[in-house]
Amino acid sequence: MPALESRRSRAPELEPLLAAALERQPRALARAVTVLESGGEDQRRLLERIYPRVGRARVLGITGPPGAGKSTLVDRIARSYRQRGETLGILAVDPTSPFSGGAILGDRVRMQSHYTDPGVFIRSMATRGAMGGVARATRDAVDLLDAAGFDHVLVETVGVGQDEIDVVRTVDTVVVVTVPGLGDEIQAIKAGIMEIADIFVINKADRQGVASTRRDLESMLSMAEALPRRPAIIETIAHRGSGIEELIAEIDRHAEWLRESGDLAVRRFQQLRLRVETILQERILAAADRALGLERELQVAWERGEDPYTVAYRLFAGALEVGVVEGR
Q1: Per residue in 90-136, pLDDT tens?
Q2: β-strand pairing of 232-235 with 152-156
Q3: Looking at residue 2, what is its pLDDT?
Q4: Residues 6+ away with beta carbon under 8 Å from 101
Q5: Under 8 Å between Cβ of 152 and 87
Q6: What would the DSSP string read from start to end of 219-276?
Q7: Fewer CB near the terminus (10 Å): N or C of the chain?
Q8: Residue 323: DSSP 8-state
Q9: What are the C-alpha distances in Å from 149 to residues 87, 224, 246, 311?
Q10: Of 100, 103, 198, 177, which is closest to residue 141 (Cα–Cα)?
Q11: Are 144 and 29 in contact, with CB atoms under 8 Å apart?
Q12: Average pLDDT of 42-60?
């Protein structure tokens, strides 16, 4: 009962917070994102309230290896959208600090020129150990910015590699950024990112090796299995603004193709499946830990030499028992 009373006592606080966030008040949006990151009952209730409003914003993912100039590219994309009179929210997913657990890079450092623009909201989010370079609460935060009426939501993710495949299940359009002269990084793209890219960007195209990088990408695309839409390759020099309008035009073309082909609905259904599966996994694991104690059971299994299936089935049975007792 005390826990229930605590939840009820906090509940009214969400109403004014939600109202202010939906009006795109920066402080309220920041606090609401924190609620979503923190998890628990408030996270669930907040998402439940905003979810009927989602589905209008275009959701764009920017990914690529460190040093490819993703943040500068996002800054230029933001300028272009604002010149068109469109609003956008930016979620910059940064590496988690091993000491504080927070994002190492701050939003003010990334894009100071947009800080006072009421049509732009920028938030850094820490991965907190999540796979795929996307914070656990990133998709919830995308929903929040969508519900608040932003025309575009941009998600800039960490790194590039096999785990980054999750980004395609979080956004509508995936832009993979590389630069000339990365060498082995192209192989990393081939290994893990080729299947999810909707658009390739060769940034810092004023460097030597642009033609070689383009040939590598085109060669990989030619060897790929049949794709529903061949990814375009755009060359940019983000710090100069070169190639940005061509990139924006390609992003627009891809958004139109998503709608006309019906692939947008397919992708968003897959996103829903991923989120539900993730929530189920977390709840089952938490229930098993409450019922038997995950660490204790692992220690017992280690000492007995038990196989992982036996341990997992025992923990799952404990999770079911907790679910029955607690009515969840």
Answers
A1: 998 865 544 444 444 444 455 666 767 889 999 988 765 554 446 67
A2: unpaired
A3: 46
A4: 126, 128
A5: yes
A6: HHHHHSPP-SSPPEEEE-BGGGTBTHHHHHHHHHHHHHHHHHHTHHHHHHHHHHHHHH
A7: N
A8: H
A9: 8, 38, 26, 47
A10: 103
A11: yes
A12: 94
Q: How far is CA 242 from the centre of its chain?
A: 26
What Å distances lie between residue 205 and 113, 162, 194, 217, CA to CA? 24, 25, 20, 14
At 170 the pLDDT is 82
Burial of 276 (0-12, 13-18, 19+ CB in 10 A): exposed
Angle at 230 between CA 226 and CA 233, to 5 degrees: 140
Report yes or no on whether pTM surpasses 0.90.
no
Report the first-to-last Cα separation within the chain, whole angstroms.
16
- The C-alpha angle with vertex 125 and arms to 182 and 131, in degrees rounded to 5, equals 60
What is the share, in percent, of the chain residues with pLDDT greater than 70?
78
What is each CA distance from 14 to 1, 35, 44, 145, 148, in whole angstroms? 21, 9, 11, 16, 15
Number of Cβ within 10 Å of residue 321's Cβ equals 15
Supply the pLDDT for residue 1.
41
Tokens in use for 308?
A: 């992982």
Nearest-angstrom CA–CA distance, 190 and 89: 30
